[in-house]
Amino acid sequence: MIMIAGPSAADTSDPIGVLILLAVLGAAAVCLGGRWAFNLRGAVDSTLARRRAALELRGQRTGDLGLADTRSLSPVFFRYVGSVIAVAGLAMLGLSLILATG
Q1: Which of 24, 46, 75, 78 has its CA 20 to 30 A from that of 38?
Q2: pTM of the model
Q3: What is the spatial distance between Cα 53 and Cα 6, in angstroms, rounded to a whole number?
Q4: d(Cα 23, Cα 14) in Å, to the nearest integer?
């Protein structure tokens, strides 16, 4: 088995692609989380309506009409999850900014 030894290119490389991906995912998380956290343009209401319609369709297919009960997930749940997603997105944006300038 022959091995070629040489300088590693990974030592001098700049992870700009990872930083861009981190920033894009952070911006997307801030947008989605902000829509849910502040219920912009009825995002929570439309999400609950979509979920209810999907559960009703699944209930009709399986014959279990109790699936359409969506009282377990209220708009408060989606607002809480949206705020957590938005804060995590801000953290990702901050991390990518720190790594890019540091």
Answers
A1: 24
A2: 0.70
A3: 60
A4: 15
- What does the block give as tokens for 39? 């219920």
pLDDT digits (tens, 9 = 90+) for 21-51: 999 999 999 999 999 898 888 888 888 888 8
Give me the residue label for tokens 């979509």.
50
The tokens of 31 are what? 């947008």
Q: Which amino acid is at 12?
A: T
Closest by Cα among 34, 31, 35 to 47 = 35
Task: Give the tens place of pLDDT for each residue, 48-99.
Answer: 888 888 888 888 888 877 766 656 678 888 899 999 999 999 999 999 999 8
Length of the chain: 102
Of residues 46, 47, 70, the one with CA closest to residue 58: 70
